[in-house]
Amino acid sequence: MTNDSESDSEPDSESELENYAGLKIRKLPVVGVLLLVLCERLTYYTLAGTQKIYLQNQLKKMPSTSAALNAIFNMLCSFWCLPGGLLADSIGRYKAIIAAGSVYAIGTICVGISVIYELQAALGWLFIVGSLVLIAMGSGSIRPNLANFGADQIGNASEKQRECQKTFFSLLYLSVNIGVLIAFGFLANTTTDGLAGVVPQQEGYYFAYASGAGCMILAVLIFVGFTGSYRMLPGNGLGPVRLLIRYQYYSVWNGGGSRAAMSLVGFLCLPLFYIVTLADILLSAAEKSSTEVFTDPCAAPLTEAPPRMLHGGGGGGNGDEVLSDIALVLGSMACSFLAVANVNCTWVQELKQEVNFGAKDARRTFAAIPTIIVVNIAFNLCFNSMSNAFPSQACQMDLRIGSMQLNGAFFHVADAMAVVIFTPIFEFCLYPVIARVKGSPVRFGQKIVAGLVMAAISNVAAAILEFMRKDAPFLCGDAGFSHCAPGFSEDGTEGTRMKDISAFWMFIPFVFVGIAEILVNPSMYCFAYEAAPLEVRSLLQAINFFFRGSVSNAFTALVSKLFFPNDLDKGSLDSYYFVNAALAAIGIIVHFAITHR
């Protein structure tokens, strides 16, 4: 292992700098990072993409509750980005990655054991603990550190290195989506249909989740195997983080004015938002299970159209919507106050004693927060549709291919394929051409606005397909029951009927989301890395992941509980899509207001 003093130095000669910036360094340490990212994302998406269906059909939770629990899982995974970032800034990113990866691997083993067919009912608690605690802790802690650790291997001493880092972040996202392709293109389908001649249908979840566990263990071993070639930066301790907290509190009482107070209130609202959201969703999940009797529309056709219900989700009329409303108010206050207060960070006051992390560094850190909040919330409310709404919609369309059925989560492959195909096109063709035409590189803001437009289009396209799906006739006959929609029985004689419209139409919204991801997520990785002072680089990247996944999924969990239809044919899923698209449009306007103030 290289020692810190050697590994932290920059190349001296111009030729060495060219090699360093071009990633032509011994053993290509970034390869170790990219392979770990690929395996970790394969494991994560295998679980995240099928968890809702497992909770709904195997553990018999209500569809809306299952959707909300899945959003809570995603929320918790991103929540742990903050402790993971603090740990990395304290002990160094390499050690933090090893620790988080080990916890992650243990969680995948627990989940794999809990879904063995004979043990599913008895070990439902182990599935919840393994996924919502251990995997969430490991996944959240490892993600922001991998992005920054890979960028550390390149350095940012020269303009060429900084440009190379931007390419690295795009390659990082490419690796993510190769893992997604394997997870959804292969493993997701085995959960509900098994593997012909190899894995029986009832053990499909065990095969998929055990495969994920194996990949995660392999990922950690691969990462350790590249140890000798890594450039390792030592941790800076928690001093800078403590100073940020001191700057916040000191400024409130010493001339920071209303903006300092508003920023403090915003930060204090965040933990309250989380506590109320978790209590709301987990209480709902504990109290409700699916006991609905499914009426076969082919055997007993409805004489009139069922009413369209907006409150088709977890709101059961028992007053539990109050917690949801409180959580929404707290979350909205937190995001609004933090965004408004930190648009102008002159409220940060100098401390009386001299410190290494000065007020200028604190202002620079706080100033990045409005962009992180606005872009991530506006984009990811649309993006989160892929986790529950898109697959659920596909599950009630025609999934048949010959004698087998696809899982609704399979259609994530369209998103991953879009990223894999269009990333090199954007990076090596489109961006350079635009740069030559306009005489300057494609700017961060231009990518963000284009990405939000694409995200809005994806949800509008899904809404149009939902209108088409509802108008299509039911598929009658023994093969007409969906394997991944609510109510499917093991003998295949009851459940939810598919509609006579090909589920492959869902490729359209998934592809639009994939294009939006290329534009937004790598740009935000790079923004968080460049905007942060060195001492809090892991922390700010963690905050980026926190708002991207955790805060956005907390909102999605609440909306799913209140508005996600238990029966898509009676609910109003299209309204959910239009709201997401409208919020993306609002995000564009607010982003312009922030950047052109």
From TrEMBL:
<dbReference type="InterPro" id="IPR036259">
    <property type="entry name" value="MFS_trans_sf"/>
</dbReference>
<feature type="transmembrane region" description="Helical">
    <location>
        <begin position="576"/>
        <end position="594"/>
    </location>
</feature>
<feature type="transmembrane region" description="Helical">
    <location>
        <begin position="326"/>
        <end position="345"/>
    </location>
</feature>
<feature type="transmembrane region" description="Helical">
    <location>
        <begin position="123"/>
        <end position="146"/>
    </location>
</feature>
<dbReference type="GO" id="GO:0016020">
    <property type="term" value="C:membrane"/>
</dbReference>
<feature type="transmembrane region" description="Helical">
    <location>
        <begin position="447"/>
        <end position="465"/>
    </location>
</feature>
<feature type="transmembrane region" description="Helical">
    <location>
        <begin position="206"/>
        <end position="226"/>
    </location>
</feature>
<dbReference type="GO" id="GO:0022857">
    <property type="term" value="F:transmembrane transporter activity"/>
</dbReference>
<feature type="transmembrane region" description="Helical">
    <location>
        <begin position="366"/>
        <end position="390"/>
    </location>
</feature>
<dbReference type="InterPro" id="IPR000109">
    <property type="entry name" value="POT_fam"/>
</dbReference>
<keyword id="KW-1133">Transmembrane helix</keyword>
<feature type="transmembrane region" description="Helical">
    <location>
        <begin position="410"/>
        <end position="435"/>
    </location>
</feature>
<feature type="transmembrane region" description="Helical">
    <location>
        <begin position="503"/>
        <end position="524"/>
    </location>
</feature>
<comment type="similarity">
    <text>Belongs to the major facilitator superfamily. Proton-dependent oligopeptide transporter (POT/PTR) (TC 2.A.17) family.</text>
</comment>
<keyword id="KW-0472">Membrane</keyword>
<feature type="transmembrane region" description="Helical">
    <location>
        <begin position="264"/>
        <end position="286"/>
    </location>
</feature>
<feature type="transmembrane region" description="Helical">
    <location>
        <begin position="67"/>
        <end position="89"/>
    </location>
</feature>
<feature type="transmembrane region" description="Helical">
    <location>
        <begin position="96"/>
        <end position="117"/>
    </location>
</feature>
<feature type="transmembrane region" description="Helical">
    <location>
        <begin position="545"/>
        <end position="564"/>
    </location>
</feature>
<protein>
    <submittedName>
        <fullName>Protein NRT1/ PTR FAMILY 8.3</fullName>
    </submittedName>
</protein>
<keyword id="KW-0812">Transmembrane</keyword>
<feature type="transmembrane region" description="Helical">
    <location>
        <begin position="28"/>
        <end position="47"/>
    </location>
</feature>
<dbReference type="Pfam" id="PF00854">
    <property type="entry name" value="PTR2"/>
</dbReference>
<feature type="transmembrane region" description="Helical">
    <location>
        <begin position="167"/>
        <end position="186"/>
    </location>
</feature>
